[in-house]
Amino acid sequence: MAASAANDSAVERIVIENCAIATVDANDTEYASGHVVVAGNKIEFVGAGKAPENLENVVRRIDGTGHLVTPGLVNTHHHFYQWITRGLATDHNLFNWLVALYPTWARIDEQMTYTAAQGSLAAMAKGGVTTAMDHHYVFPKGSGDLSGSIIRAASEMGVRFTLARGSMDRSEKDGGLPPDHAVETLEGALADTEATVKKYHDSSFDAMTQVAVAPCSPFSVSTELLKQGAEMARRLGVRMHTHGSETVEEEQFCKELFGMGPTDYFESTGWLGEDVWMAHSVHMNDSDIAAFARTKTGVAHCPSSNARLAAGIARVPDMLAAGVPVGLGVDGTASNESGELHTELRNALLINRLNPVHRERALNARQALRLGTFGGAQVLGRASNIGSLEVGKCADLVLWNLNTLLHSSIADPVTALVFGAAAPVTASFVNGKQIVENNRLLFADEDAIAVSTREEAQRLARISAQA
To answer: Which residues contact 326 (CB under 8 A, 6 or more apart)?
Structure first.
């Protein structure tokens, strides 16, 4: 591929050579042995063989022998705070799981969310995630600046980040699931969400922090919060996110309360569109998928969490065939204790092959990689600047070490990455800046985070027990 601009001697360059490359561009271009040149925070060259000669101001050369270079992974659904409530309610379905954990989650505070965000981000960054998102929707009264603490953790880690500022205003007294003291008022939720967007959202091409409007779910928010939230998001020019069609219980809830299924309900409140993405979308009929395809509503597919909560198998092959944008999500680590996205490539492929209609034709290795990279970028509205290795895009990329015992006898590198065990990350770059070196974080102390997250989990457990 040609360079996007004339050779600029002032910019610092990083050259990666002798590596297999999966660009995940529109043509799925791959190179058995190729090069990537990063100039500043952009990709300047991608191609076969050696990098162009006579490049100026090359500050580093990386020999990628035995490695596969891909776009950085893009996570499209998560709940960071759940890092400190892992391993609880392990044999529950979604509604029972929520009822069991909401009383504990209602006791979180700013220090807990900051520490839990560090744990969640560290797990993802070590596993090749370069763009993360967090759907945070629990804001107990007097708990401090939770949104600010999460954004601070992402900034310190060096990860590109979208905060989906969530909200809940339908508590137990209104027929919802959350405890009364865990929800906000309609007016308070809208006002604080707008303030968060105005303070933190960056709409520039290489933005490191963006904010979405994200009421939690149809069974925890009022119809007015959905409607006014959609109006606000579109007035402010930001994206919209919520949970949808996750379980059969949710579908029954919507039909009993609103007289229609989740997709029709969302459409009636303004929540379908190319600026919207839904988490899970497991229980979708043909009409629902057609509505998502018609409106270009995106889906965050969370295979491990769906299995953990026995929610079901999302119809991902049918969604892709219809033209629905689909990315991958870790989901909160109270329902996916591993907390990293690379295993979701493998689980998405394997779980979708259990679908009795598609079986072995459901997904292949390259489709799974696309879900975790370009598909995620589409879902987050950032396909023009991240998600594939193309000249002019932001330099978010990962060098996966496939020269290991667990990968070295698999000839095809993409197959090794997706079908094989979790591959070590030799280097990960976000916006041209390296954040992982030889499977260790460069801007965070993993051992210290392990200690602090354990301490905060224990503190939360004590507070919840006393309450």
So the answer is: 298, 299, 301, 316, 319, 320, 371, 375, 379
